[in-house]
Each structure stands twice: as C-alpha cells, then as structure tokens.
Amino acid sequence: MRDVLDPLLRAWRAGETAGLVTVVRTFQSAPRDPGAAMLVTADGTASGSVSGGCVEGAVYELATDAIAGAPPILERYGVSDDDAFAVGLSCGGIIDVFVEAVSREDYPELESIAADVAADLPVAVATVIEHPDPAWLGRRLIVRPDSAEGSLGSPLADLRVAEDVRGLLAQGRTETLGFGPDGERMGSGMRVFVNSFAPAPRMLVFGAIDFASALARLGTYLGYRVTVCDARPVFATPARFPEVDQVVVDWPARYLQGEIDAGRIDKRTIICVMTHDPKFDVPLLTAALRGPEVAYIGAMGSRRTHEDREQRLREAGLTDAELARVSSPIGLDLGAHTPEETAVSIAAQVIALRWGGSGDALAEASGPIHRRAAAAAATATTAAGARGA
C-alpha cells in the first residue's frame, strides 16, 4: 500500500470510495512482492501495479466492482493454459491478490496510518483475507509496538494476531499468517495479511569522498535513510551531499558507537567504510564488528590496504569470526573504475546479500529470477561474511 498511499489518501480525504488491490502472497517467480498495490479511484484512474502489467486489466475490473459495492475478495492469478498473456503471469509465477473498497466509512484509521508512515513510525495493518465466515473478510487490526486499534472479529483473535504481528513489524516483514477461525495459533481457516510499514533501513557511509557521494546518491535511490559521517568539516557538508538524510561531522568510531548505544542500529543497517585510512578504519571497524548484527559491513581499499587493515584489526584483538563479517575489498567484481561504477558494484553486493542472489549473470544461471524474502533471509545470514572481489 505504501506505493499508492498518497493517491489513496487524497481520495479518502475527498470522501470518495476507491478500489485497492494488494498482493498478499506470491509463489515461484512472481514479479511483485507482497504489499505491492494497485489503486483505482472513483474516476477510473489507476495507479501502482501488482504484476508489472500482466494481470492489471483483470484486477482493474475487480477494483471497479469493489467501488460499486462488491464485497472483499481474494483472487489468484498464475499462468493461463489458454493464453498466458490474457489473464496470467507470463513469468510463470502465481500471485494472490486481495481486493477491497476503501473509504472514510470502512477505513477510518487510514489517516493515522499515513501520519505514522510519514513520520517513520512503525505501524502494521493486519487484514483478514480468508475466513469461514465471510463477514470477517476485510476486517483489520492496526498494530503499533505498544497498541492496537480496530478488531478482526473477537477479542481472542485480536490478542493473538497482534502479538504475532508485532514480531513481524519489529523485523519490517510483510507476509500472510495463518490462524484458526478465532485466532487459534494451531488452527487453520483464517488467513491474515500483515502489511508492515517499518522505518526505512539505514545506510551509514563513512568518509566524505567522491566515492561516498556516488554511493550515498544510489543508497537514497534504493530507499535507504543515508547518513554520511566524516571527522573533517571541510568535506562533510550538506552542499557536497544534498541528497542524503543526514551529514555528521564526528569521529566515525565515536558516532557509530553512539548510534549502537542508542539502539539505532539494527539487522537492516548497511555500514560502508570508504575512508581507507587506518586511524579512522581500525576503531570504526572494531566498533562495527563487535556491535549488533547488521545486514552488511563493507570496507573500501585495495587488496594491499585490506591486508594491512586486517592485520591491524587482529592486533586490536578481533577474531577470525568477527573479521569474517566484513566485505573487503568492498563490492562485486564488475570491473568498476569510476565512483559511480564503484557505487553500483557495492549496491549490487548489498542487493545480492539481501535477496540471496549469486551475483552471476542471469543468462548463465537457472532457477527463479525473483527470490522471496524468507529464502533470502537464510541465505543472507550465511553469506553475510562473504568478501567482494
């Protein structure tokens, strides 16, 4: 819903009814992840996408039916035996979509959700998409770390679902959960789609150099909240890094340790060390490698720089297991030369670790192109210490 939230909110504020189509589950090589949405407003305008174009025509009709008063519906789309391009997914995947009407009357919580998203506050929307009693379909629970709003149909269901949703929200995960009809964890019959709106993940770039500038721009483009930190005030200026969320003048190790102590570093955080200067790198990497688990730690420099830095870190007391957490030299072997090309190589490694990609050419690989987050999480955990070439 995040990708259509602005037009959805405009229609809601105008007192209109809109049709919202949300991807709630995917199988095989589906083109969009759960949470991707398509919106149709009362005037027939469509925005967003659930399949990159494959089934938009079919779901458009369902959305207009919802505007006209049709009840919420769960639909599945896959490859059509007769004509894969007519109503199916040409990529061979399968998606489940949930179609519902959205208006002030049936979605009074929308404005508060939008306010939380705009303020980078964690909030999740849990919606019943399957239930033996059709009256439960479309009911939703708005879950925050310390509160819940709305109801799915019973106090027990609200309690159980809210507990499980908070676990997903803490990890920023969007997925479908199964329960018994009254929220029983060991039962079946009710499926609840959890759309988590967690704050954007962070990218910390240390070293205000031209390579850092290119990486910071790309990090912002990829949806990270980017911070650039350098101890040299002449280089660490907003004028040199206009696209980033924050420019910090501080000793890198001190700044990072402060963020760790404040609890602002989590498993989604990306840490890129671009300084390749021992007086900055060694204390900074010591703090990073002894800190909490993060998605990626990379350090820039030649192989000679890497060997020297690794020796200094060993002398500082770091173990082989701790050193295995850093990717150095940073990035994938793309033959990059310029700052922009190097930024792409770093971003490519970050994306590959996030989704479990191999980094090989797709033309020479087999299996699905689009990997699901659950599988990628396991791969990323084992690959987190991989070193770029």
Automatic annotation (TrEMBL):
Superkingdom of the source species: Bacteria
XdhC Rossmann domain sequence ranges: 203-350
Transmembrane parts of this sequence: none
Matching Gene3D superfamilies: NAD(P)-binding Rossmann-like Domain
InterPro entries: MoCofactor_Util/Proc, XdhC_CoxI, XdhC_Rossmann_dom
The XdhC- CoxI domain, residue ranges: 11-78, 118-179
Protein name: XdhC family protein
